[in-house]
Amino acid sequence: MTGGVAAGAVTAGTGAAADITAAARVVAASKVYGTGDAAVRALDAVTVGFPAGRFTAIMGPSGSGKSTLMHCAAGLDSLTSGAAYIGETELGALGDRQLTLLRRERVGFVFQSFNLVPTLTVAENITLPLDLAGRSPDAAWVDGLIDVVGLGGRLRHRPGELSGGQQQRVAVARALAGRPEVVFADEPTGNLDSHSGGEVLALLGRAVREMGGTVVMVTHDPSAAAHADEVVFLADGRLVDRMTGPTAGAVLDRMKAFDGRGGGGAQ
Ligand SMILES: Nc1ncnc2c1ncn2[C@@H]1O[C@H](COP(=O)(O)OP(=O)(O)OP(=O)(O)O)[C@@H](O)[C@H]1O
């Protein structure tokens, strides 16, 4: 590989530890939407790895490219140039069908709007990705997950009978049910009050620290980012900083510095 980027190692960004296995990474990733005068460079040569067994938050001002980075890293969108990897699999080398399989079998997703299937029960929603993949659930793992999310008494309920926080906890269990290599969460607390949001963030933290998972979360909320092991900061489509052991205060201070520099606009 060229450019000094070792396969599977996290080498990018300031303060990043080298030689940690990345569950997902992008290398020299650029994404341009539109063409000509209407072209928007949403990502500009970003190289960043998301270490296995860690909880990483992606932060930055509105329009800085957070969602674009997550979508391209997760195989939901394609890069204009550069490369995205899940483990050692380069996503750009895959056809549509292979990408669908990779997303189904190796990646978990949690979205702001929960995205549960309203006609299925909680139990059926949790095992849906496994059912779609034709995989039989690991019963002990799924039972353990249901305990952790605290919805054992609600398994026969439909999503519409649950609160927003409960629905998002179902979505987290669904994302983890197949033991994916990495879970991508896009503003998972964006539709929740602070108490329910805190429960969902604690759950994502437990998925990493107690269950050996890897989580990458986009958020614009410093208190949410403080649940992560590390925060990567984007501004104007570029990786501008990383912070390990974040606190809400330190993240907020870092974000205020962007405002001073005009680094990407207001929330
Ligand atoms: N489909 C698209 N077509 C054109 N431009 C887009 C598209 N999606 C995103 N953009 C632009 O790319 C830039 C990055 O957008 P992105 O949604 O990744 O930012 P973000 O940091 O996630 O923002 P927010 O916090 O507001 O959700 C923005 O300027 C946005 O307007």
TrEMBL record:
Residue intervals of the ABC transporter domain: 24-261
Keyword rRNA-binding on entry: no
Keywords: ATP-binding, Nucleotide-binding, Transport
Pfam families: ABC_tran
PROSITE patterns for the chain: ABC_TRANSPORTER_1, ABC_TRANSPORTER_2
Domain of life: Bacteria
Single GO term (MF): ATP binding
Protein name, as recorded: ABC transporter ATP-binding protein
Organism name: Actinacidiphila acididurans
